[in-house]
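okkk here we go again. third time trying to get the NAP bound version out, last two times i messed up the smiles copy paste (missing a bracket lol). double checked this time i swear
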Amino acid sequence: MKVTVTTRSGRELIKEALSLTIRFSATVADLQEAIHKRTKKYYPSRQRLTLPLPSGSKERPTVLNYKKSLKDYTDGNANELTVVFKDLGPQVNYSTLFFWEYLGPLILYPIFYYFPVYQIFGYNGERVIHPVQTYALYYWCLHYFKRIMETFFVHRFSHATSPLSNVFRNCAYYWTFGAWIAYYVNHPLYTPVSDLQMKVGFTFGLLCQVSNFYCHILLRSLRSSDGGGYQIPRGFLFNIVTCANYTTEIYQWLGFNIATQTIAGYVFMAVAAAIMTNWALAKHRRLKKLFDGKEGRLKYPRRWVILPPFL
Ligand SMILES: NC(=O)c1ccc[n+]([C@@H]2O[C@H](COP(=O)([O-])OP(=O)(O)OC[C@H]3O[C@@H](n4cnc5c(N)ncnc54)[C@H](OP(=O)(O)O)[C@@H]3O)[C@@H](O)[C@H]2O)c1
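finally!!
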């Protein structure tokens, strides 16, 4: 089979041969390997291959699935195929991205608790550590430790890699918010909330963290270890909300904020809730589209998106 690989401007990517000659039974992954071999720079996860669209078309192009055979995309003409190549830029594994973004808050927060950082900011008096500040440290570290463990041992991601630029963007987000909240919760002039409020906050937050972990176990069970697409999440809170994992994530930050009560903590929760709401709406739409109840497909049940009774 003769495969021509062009860039989005129509230029041929591999000049010297004009085209790649690929085995008749080859898969998209084989084609990606062949492109990598010729170009050296573009390893498979950096490549996005699509089918060409007629000029002027406003439709979204079909993205080639690396597991499929090239024959599936030849549209009757089994000997020739033209694909459009896009460079996705340098990539990192999803687990690497998550590891670095969560490692920052896990390390930065205890620095504010254990080390005399406030002297740098001009506070030279004796620092009395309140019990809530110690519990907040444990709670915070448990949360980020859990996220790192889930990244490596629970989540089954659909995409192997993410653009390298996301590491810098996500680290800036998590590390800055982590340091900002740590600064206020561990501050020498911090005023603790009442004992009852602290207990209510941490107990509620811990329950939500356990629930969030259970939600992630349920999501894991939707895919086999060698991948798979999207399924209808069922069981526990998923019977009520599409993104029960985000719901419990938001509420566990609410628990932390009830117990520690800082503006920084509430601002982080509001920003995180806004981000997760956007993602939850997209996930809800995707599941409704995939499971439309037509032509033998399952019908997605009626559910809240993220926060009943608001959304
Ligand atoms: N504080 C914050 O700002 C913030 C923001 C976002 C997330 N989080 C936390 O981080 C956790 C991970 O977030 P995430 O957005 O990366 O992933 P996610 O949506 O929570 O999903 C976790 C894993 O389950 C898979 N999955 C989700 N829905 C599925 C379905 N219907 N069928 C099969 N598999 C499915 C996902 O696959 P895919 O790879 O295909 O998505 C992913 O590997 C969240 O649950 C939340 O606790 C925090």
